[in-house]
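R.M. (postdoc): so does anyone remember the format we settled on? I'll just put the structure tokens first.
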């Protein structure tokens, strides 16, 4: 009997489809586990026993693992998980696996889910469960637009190749702080145009096309219209994209259970004022039947039965009345300040990477990219 190797993709499928359940054994140190742990709608039990405890106190550590369970082990790189898996197999456990490549492979995983398909366009949501982040792909004719791509640009390039599409444009809703964008990787590979708002990207050292609210962008076959809507607050350049007057790719401007925090830039009063104005004069003035496609989700309860994260503007505003009902900017700012959380230190460095100001190694970027986002103004 030997332990088996499983992939992040297989772990995702188990979390979503293995209703019998399994025990996820995370052997990273306590600090890393508390910073970022694997989550999922059907993941019923996670146990954290650091690798070094198995090294120093093998017998006692094995006794902490429930017998008669399917065990999937995860660690930082892979080697520690395999070491523990072999110990459990030797102790009589007979269904033990370890994650190939370690926790970083889970952090980078992207799963495409179809949002809309009609005779003019297809719209995909790319779910990144390790980051609780969402990016998007709009297909019209043989053209692909990508919105808010993750660092792993090869995923989007392979998606385009698989569907025989030309990836022509990359849209950014804002200068991301919680993850590294794949926009330049895509642009370098296929000469795609990067589209972003100057209020966030004026310091960028790479070429991009500046857009403003009120502009329209069409696919080359005129199959669908993308309307640019300036929604500042989370950042000054935060921009949402309304597709076919029905789907709003909102970035961090609107979440299903919260709204993008306006304090990450260190200008909480100024940016809270921008966000308050966006709520009062843009978001609450929209058609409440518009379907919002956010940049992040707070938890798995937001997921639909189809595996998507989408909700109508009207339902979001009603469900977040504690945010949208403020009529005074000062009271709204006080609310934001009362809910402020310390942002991860790495966010400042990620902003520099996304502006092209620094170029860490691929390994360093992968490490920087690990961890759930902290972009919401409230916990939902």
């Amino acid at each position: 009997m030997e332990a088996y190797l499983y992939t992040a993709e297989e772990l995702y499928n188990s979390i979503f489809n293995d209703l019998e359940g399994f025990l996820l054994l995370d052997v990273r140190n306590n600090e890393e586990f508390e910073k970022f742990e694997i989550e999922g709608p059907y993941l019923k039990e996670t146990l954290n026993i650091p690798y070094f405890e198995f090294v120093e106190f093998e017998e006692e550590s094995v006794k902490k693992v429930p017998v008669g369970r399917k065990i999937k082990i995860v660690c930082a790189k892979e080697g520690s998980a395999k070491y523990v898996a072999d110990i459990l197999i030797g102790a009589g456990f007979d269904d033990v696996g370890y994650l190939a490549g370690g926790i970083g492979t889970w952090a980078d995983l992207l799963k495409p889910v179809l949002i809309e398909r009609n005779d003019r366009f297809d719209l995909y949501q790319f779910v990144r469960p390790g980051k609780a982040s969402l990016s998007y792909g709009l297909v019209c004719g043989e053209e692909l637009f990508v919105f808010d791509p993750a660092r792993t640009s090869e995923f989007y390039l392979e998606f385009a190749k698989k569907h025989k599409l030309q990836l022509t444009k990359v849209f950014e809703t804002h200068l991301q702080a919680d993850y590294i964008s794949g926009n330049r990787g895509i642009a370098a590979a296929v000469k795609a145009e990067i589209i972003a708002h100057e209020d966030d990207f004026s310091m960028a050292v790479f070429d991009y096309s500046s857009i403003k609210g009120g502009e329209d962008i069409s696919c080359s076959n005129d199959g669908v219209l993308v309307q640019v809507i300036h929604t500042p607050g989370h950042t000054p350049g935060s921009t949402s994209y309304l597709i076919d007057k029905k789907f709003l790719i909102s970035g961090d401007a609107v979440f299903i259970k919260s709204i993008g925090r306006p304090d990450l830039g260190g200008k909480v009063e100024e940016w809270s004022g921008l966000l308050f104005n966006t709520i009062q004069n843009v978001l609450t003035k929209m058609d409440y039947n518009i379907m919002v496609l956010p940049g992040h989700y707070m938890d798995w309860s937001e997921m639909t039965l189809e595996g998507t994260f989408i909700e109508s503007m009207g339902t979001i505003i009603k469900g977040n009345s504690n945010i949208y009902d403020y009529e005074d900017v000062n009271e709204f700012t006080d609310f934001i300040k009362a809910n402020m959380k310390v942002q991860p230190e790495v966010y400042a460095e990620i902003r520099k990477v996304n502006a092209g100001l620094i170029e860490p190694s691929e390994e360093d970027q992968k490490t920087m990219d690990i961890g759930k986002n902290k972009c919401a103004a409230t916990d939902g």
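R.M.: ...and that's the designed sequence above, right after the tokens. Also worth knowing: The two ends are 45 Å apart (CA to CA). The chain has 15 helices and 18 strands.
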